[in-house]
Structures are given as structure tokens and as C-alpha cells.
Amino acid sequence: MKPGLHMFVAVLLLLSTAGLAGPPADPVKGTVRDKDGNPLPGVTIQIKGTSQGTVTQPDGTYTLNVTDPASVLVFSYIGYTPQEIPLGGRAVIDVVLEASASELNQVVVVGYGTRRKRDLTGSVGSLSGEAIAAQPVNTATQGVQGKLAGVQIVSSGAPGSQPQVRVRGTGSMLAGAEPLYVVDGVLTNDIRNINTADILTMDVLKDASASAIYGVRAANGVIIITTKRGRAGKMEVSYNMTVGWREVSNPVKMANASQYADYLKDAGPNVTIPDYNADSDWYGALLRKGLQQTHNVSLSGGTEKFLYYFNAGYLTDEGIVRQNKYDRFTIRSNNEWNIASNLKFVMQASYMHNTTQNVNLAEVYNNTYRAAPVIPIQRDGKYGNTSAFQNVGNPILSIDKVNDRYKENRLQGTGYLEYSPWEFLKLRSSISANQGFQNRRRYNATFLNNESTFIVAGGNQQRPESQLTMVKEEGTEWIWDNTVTFQQKFDRHDLTVLAGFTSQEYEGNYLEGLRRNVPNSPDMWYLIAGDPNTSTNTADGDKYARRSWLGRVNYSYADKYLLTVSFRNDASSRFPSANRNGYFPAVGAGWVISEEDWMPKGGALSFLKLRGSWGRIGNDNIASNLYILTANSGLLYFFNGAATLGTNLADIKDRNLKWETTEEYDFGLEFAFLDSRLTGEVNYYNKKTKDALVTVKIPGLLGDPDNEYTTNAGSFVNRGWEFTLGWKDNITEDFSYNIGGNLTLNHNEVTGLNQGQPLFRGGVGQQGNITKTDNGQAIGSFFVLDAMGVFPDQAAIDAYVDKNGQKIQPNAQPGDLQYRDVDGNGSINDLDRIYAGSYQPKLYYGINAGLKYKGFDVGLDFYGNSGNKIYNGKKAFRYEVTDNVEAKYADRRWTASRPSATDPRVLYGNTPASTYFVESGNFFRLNNVTLGYELPKSLLDNIKIERVRVYLTSQNLFTIKRFSGFSPEMISSNPKQDGFLSLQNSSSPLEAGIELSPYPTTRTFALGLNITF
User: Fold this and answer.
1) How far is CA 300 from CA 44, 225, 229, 325, in A?
2) Burial level of 422, CB count in 10 A (0-12/13-18/19+)?
3) Is 746 helix (H, G, I), strand (E, B) or coil?
4) Closest Cα to residue 412, out of 219, 727, 182, 714?
5) Full-model pTM
6) What DSSP designation does 915 have?
7) With left for phi above 0 and alpha for psi between -120 and 50, is residue 768 left, alpha or beta?
8) Cα 517 vs. chain centroid, distance in angstroms?
9) pLDDT tens, position by position, 657-686
């Protein structure tokens, strides 16, 4: 712990002694009811300006010791309008709370503080933890899909994976495009350790003015997760569980033996098909239905002096791929001690342990797609030898002969001391820590290409020597935040001023070792058991630090004129000293028009607010050594005929590297009608990123290994509209319903790039790079030939000529693809490539609906997007004429007896990248449907149970799509396992939307149970 922290804590403790010995407390009692006279249990009663408070009992009664007869009591309850009541020396105060028809008084976490939603000047989306936990998902962001405008969630079916999140478009090319997560004050890139059952709220800071208070890492948006806490009163014990299964939602059917043989007549007429009398379904052997279940037990409660929340959770997910499995165990303990009326200490801590049985889909999926159906999968314990026939490995053998296990432990926590010397001033010092340990053990068993392994010997699939790889990684990050908050009302003026300092450091280490010829016994899977002569070792590490000053002013006049101004100065060690500091200002203003005297009151309009904002934010999510020159020493070279040891630069670096910065302005209109039964919001945003990191080609004579270096040479823009509309109503006391939706329109465009040099990425086998990022186009746009259709006959080939009458495709045959001669030079080459869209959708949307009748409830969530493209890379990736094809293609391809205008007769290894492989990414999905029933309370009272709810739920029940692949949602199948703090999906925005070996999106069916005692 730093010396300064010792001093700060000591000062707080000394100051707090004044609050430890005060005048005697007098009890204040009363009952809190609703407008119908029903008692309200769990209502929070707090002495304003202090942390002292209590909650009502099941009969609505409360007792609170108060020392100051002039105190003000604040009564608050979810779904009801808060009330502030001066004590005035009274000993009994009964209160009637009015149900709030709107969410305008909802408290939103905005970073180092909270605000009422109605007082916000920036764009913030919020979701309750209950809405997230109601879905059978592993990671919290999966439960957000389709629920918030401006937030695009791309999920994978892989167990334990983290979804890809894009807030208002792609925010970077190379510096990381994922948002910053803040979990109870802990800043992180990875929230796979967070149990969804522990989440109280999730708030998404979408625009620059809202997120600028986090400056350094806020360029891609900020997602703030607040976990649950206890409430004063009797202990509440709850048990929640789900159990069900997952299956592939959109399987790809491959050609059967008959279709395959028919295809080879054209693709490989000289190929002899072995006669095994087989008709193998390779995907059927690889994929399965996987069990998924979750169990959570929580305890919460407390007194006026101590509040607690504890939860233990277990999740297991077998996955849908053979031998894949994910197990996770979590514990969370959140405690709050009210040491005095003006001093409290809070400790929030969590632990996670997970074990993943991994599958290398990059290899397995490629082979599964290519494997011929005429080769048996297994017979009598032996494997079909695909490599002997078609130079493709048997994917089932590949999985069975590898044991790849990850184990990860994560400790995460925050502790803070908060002191209020006066009602209007709050001092807080907080220490957050994030520590993780990850171990990986990958054992590749030995096998030979003989008849002990295969039905028929031969081929090249073998591993004469076993191989054991062991990886150990650890990392620790700490953050020290110190803030001072002043909040005071002066007549109709409301002023809140925040100032603070924050310090952050991270250090991580990576160690990898490998040895061969390790015995095939789990008890012997240690490096020492292998051949020392085959040993190889790799080590790596990272270390960085950030220091920041921050401030924010919130002002409102008469609850109708709103102003927010913030500023943050960040210093990051990831940049050279001359460019280390970044400055991030923001300003926002709001006008609550409905509060104006000239606006009619009591009519259809309940609320109307106009707001606008501007802000600048930064991005330092880059490698810590990106600007540091490194050298290779001990290199042998000859000078004047003599051998000499020398040194050369390992890589050319930009020593003047600087921040990526994003400037954004945002305008919004929020409204509510008919007693807030109808609510909505319209936003326009324009987000410009400059000094974006890109790679620039440099001359080979400079000696750089890849002839390129990274520098600030790009700029791009995301601009668009967001629409949100919702309706909810209570028809009777027993019947209520709601329906809503959101729509986001986003336009992404590169406006200045790379000193005129475009970026080519997205390698697909023999076709090379198929994306091009350049000025005037979206990031990662597909750049391919324009396939106009199929030549129906020789006459069409002969008729396709240039201006000189020469054939443009002289080597084509009937049934081949016809390509457009874009440049008109009479031949087809790379100069004829065109932009064919990108994976970034032009619009995405969500629709949700719910209905409650007595104990029954039904919920529906829909999600979709439109305007994006997907490149069917697995279909384009062809190395042998014997590679299998999809059944749909086999039925539709051109043949002499069945001409086709769209699908060519064969797909060769030299088939170029073209629009033929570019497909629509549009889809519409029923993301979740849930049917629940809550048992009547009269039935439960006799057995001392507060609540029992059972429900059936399904995730991704159906998807309407045009894409012929597994899923229109694309995430790399092998996310980086290079650090629990630096987890990023390895699929770069420059190559997004290419389907090569994705983990298929899954469909889930589950039964759930909630019990509260």
C-alpha cells in the first residue's frame, strides 16, 4: 500500500472520531404503506446526508434512532416516488408512497457518482440485473442483446466466451474496439468472472460527454456494473437454478455420398472414390446437445450498522462440440459497515474459478467441412483415413488425440472508506484490485498413420512424438481512487462538484514450456517427464501505469435547466514521455421543457427534455512496447572476411506515437406521455476519431521484418440515429403488460487513412486478403471481384468480349463464374475488384414484450440487424478437388442437364475472391422467450417461504436469415487467452465478418426455479 494511502486513511479515521461520540439517539417509528393502505416491506429510510438508515419490516413498520431532531428522513422504494420528510421533533412518522409511473426518477451510475435519469445531459442506457439474470446466458453482456439502442452485441456459442460489444459503431482499427467495463469501481476488459445473479444494474455510457470522466479508456464506451448489496432487516435466503440443454441452432448440411460422387464427376473426373459403403455426417459426429445448468444460493440482510450480501454460484456448460466443456464457480461477498452516522466502510469482493476443456476449432472445423462423406468416421475402434484419400485430417481423431485444459482463478474486489464531515461534503478513498492466475495444459497424444490407428494405413495425418505444452500466466492490477464530492441546494439551484485523483498499475508475466515424448498418462503430464533435448521455453510480460486527475460539475436550476462540465487529465506509460498526457474535456446541457410555466400541465404530455453534449475521449489500449525500440543481439555476420557478432533492430517503431482521440457531439430528445405509460427517446450522434493507429508500409531496405510500422495516420467517423419507444400499462391489479423497441442507424466511414495507403486484411486460404480499408469506405470492407452470374454455355463465353472483340475470360468453360471487367482493359485481375459491403450493419434493432396476469408472466425478446455482409470463407477456402461441398450448393450448381444462373459447376482452389462468396448478414431472431408462474403467497405462508417461481425459457428459439452458414454473428473461434485483464476477441475490425471456423450460435431450452425464504 502506498504511503499516501496510509496518510489519507489515517486522516479519515481521525476526522471520524467526532462522529463516534454524539448526543443520545431517540427512536423514530412509523409505518409505510401504498395508496391502497397495503404495507410496503423493504422500503429504505435514510437520514439525509448520512449513511445511517434502516428498512421496513414485512408489515411495513420501521424504527430508526435519530440524534438530530432537525434531521430529514428520505423514504425510497423501487417503483415508487421518493419522499423527503423533515423530522420536526416528531417520534412517529407514517408515510404513504405513490407508485411512480415513469422511470425518470431512476438513479443511474455515471462514473464516480450517480444522477437521476431525468437530470442526465449525456446518453446513458440502463438495464436491471433482473432482466439480465432471467436469461440462460454465461456472460452478462449476452443478456443485453437487443435491449439498448446504440449497443450492438455479437455473441458466440462457445462456452465461457465473452461477446463482442460495439457502442455506436467500431471505435478503433488496431487499438482495441471493446468498451471499458467498470465493476464496482474495478476497471477491466473481461467480465466473464461476473455471475449474472450478482448484478443489480448495468449502465452504459454511450456518448463522449457521459464517458469522458473515464478519459483514457472510454473511446469505445463504458459499461458500469453495480453488484447487489444487502438491506437492513431479516435475513433473506434465495436459491435460483436453471437446467437445460444447448444445440446448434442453424446446422449446415453437407453433401451426402451420392451428391459428393456426382460433384466429383465434374471437379475431379480422374479421382477414384474408395468403396467403404459409407455416408458420413461429419458435423453430426462433431456436434452434440450439451447440458447446461446454473445454481445460485444467496444470503442478504443486515442491521442499521451492518449490511451484507453473499452469493455462491456454479455453472456448467458442456458446449455443443465434442469434448468441449466449461465449469465456473463464483463467490461474492459485499459488506457495508456504518461505523458512525457520517462514516462508513464498504468491502466488495469476488472470487472465480473456471475450468475449460478447449477445442481447436480453427483446425477441426476446417477439416470437418472438407472431409469426404465417402470415408467412414470410425469403425471397430479405428478411424477413417481421410488424409489417405484427400489430404484432410480426420477431425474426430484430431479432437480425441488432444487434451487442452485451461484453469483460471480470479480475485477481484473494492474497499472504500467514505466520510461526510458535513451534510454537503463527502470524502471517499477507494482501493480496487484485480488479480488472476491462469494455467494451461495441452497434451497432444502420439499416433501413427498405420492400421493400429486407421482402417486403412497411409496419408499424412500422424504424430510420431507426443507433445506437452504448459502455460502459466499471472497478472495483478490495482487502482487507487480518491474523490471529494460537494452537493448542495440553494433555493432553486442544485450544485454538485466532484474532484479526484486516481492511480493505476498493472504487471503481468507469461511463461510457456514445451517438451516432446511425454507418456500418455495424465499422471505423467509434467514437463520433467518429457525429453529434455526437445525442450523449448517462451517468456513474456507486461507492465504499465496510469495517473489521472478528474473533475465534474453538475448544475441544475429549478429542475429544468441542466448543465454538466467535466475534465480529465490522463498520463499513460504506453506512450513516449512527450505524448504521455491526454486531456479530455466534455460539456452537456439539458432543458426540461415540460417544467416550463407556459407548458400545459395535467395533459397528455408528462415529460419532455431536450439535451445536447460534446466531449473528447482517448484510447491507449495498445501494446505497452509499441513505441520502444528493441534489438536482436549476438547475430553473426562477416566484415572484412572476419566473423563478427553484431546487433540489429528487431522492429522499426514510431518514437512519436500518441493518443487516439475521439470527439463526439450528441443531441437527444426524451419524452413521456399519458402518465408516463408511453416513453421514448431520440438521439443523433456524430463520433469522429483522429490519429487512429494504422500500419504504414515502409521500404524493405530499412530492414523491418514485415516492411511496415504502426503510427497515428488514420481517421474515421461513426454517425447515426437511435430511437427508443416503450409502452406499459396496468389494466387491472392482476393484469399488466409492456411492449417496446429500439432501433439504431449507424454509418461508419474512413475519412483519412495511412498517407494514402489502404489496409488489406482478411486472409482466406488461396484467395489472399479479401478486405480493404480505405478512404470513403467502412472499416473492413470486402474488396473482391464482381461475379455477375454463371456462363450458361459456350456462346455466352464467346460473346463476352472487350471493345476490341477479344474474349475477356478465354479460359472459361460453361458453368464457370462470369466476372465484370471493371476497368475495361479486357482481362480479369485485381484491378477489377470492387467494394462489396462490410460486416458492420447499417441498422440493428430490438423488440421486447411482456405480460403478467396474476401469477403468470410471459416475456419475448427479438433482435436483428440489416445492411451488413458476410464472407463465406469456409466455402471459398478450397485446397483439393476432393474437398466436400454443401448440400445446397450440390443441388443448385450448374450442370449440363440442370443449368444454373447463380452457382458455378465446380469450386476450384484457384477460384478467386468474388461477390459470389459475399452473402447478406441480415437476420431476425427470437432471442428469448420465457413463460413463468409464481405460486400464490397464501399457499406459501404455511411453509414459511416468501416466493416460488418456476419458468420455462428458450434462448435463440429461431432465426430468420439469408446467410447459408452457421450463424450471421461472427466472432473469432479462438479468442486470445493472453491475460485475464487483456482479453480481447482476436478478430480485428479490419477482418470482421469472415466465416472460417466460428463456434456456431446455439439454441437453449431450460427449466428455471426461483425460491426466496
Assistant:
1) 15, 19, 7, 32
2) exposed
3) strand
4) 182
5) 0.88
6) G
7) left
8) 40
9) 888 899 999 999 999 999 889 999 999 999
